[in-house]
Write a structure and sequence with these properties.
globular, single chain, Carboxymuconolactone decarboxylase family protein, CMD-like, 2 domains, AhpD-like
């Protein structure tokens, strides 16, 4: 799966390269600092993305989770696990955003 960033993301990265680099480095350092593997870290971040209702972050972490070896079943389960916390409407929206990536295959 090739990396295709949304236009606004590309714009921010090109206008603020130092800021973008720091954010990228932060993510790498945090992932390396603990015992959770790459796949599971993206599934956790996917759940958090659903919780904050961020369509772009859901898209991003679905792609990253797939690249890290997650199955579609694991992706949908990571989203559904937060139903009692964020509610069904938010989960349904996140599933539709995951579908944007998973059904495009």
């Amino acid at each position: 799966m090739t990396k295709k960033y949304p236009d606004h993301h590309v714009s921010i990265r090109s206008r603020y390269p130092e800021y973008s680099s720091i954010l990228s480095d932060l993510g790498k350092v945090v992932r390396k600092s603990g015992p959770i593997d790459h796949k599971h870290s993206h599934l956790i971040q996917l759940s958090a993305s659903a919780a904050i209702k961020s369509e772009g972050a859901v898209h991003s972490h679905v792609k990253r989770a797939i690249n890290a070896g997650a199955t579609p079943e694991e992706i949908y389960h990571a989203i559904m696990l937060v139903t009692s916390i964020i509610g069904f409407p938010s989960v349904a929206a996140a599933i539709s955003w995951a579908d944007d990536i998973l059904m495009d295959k």
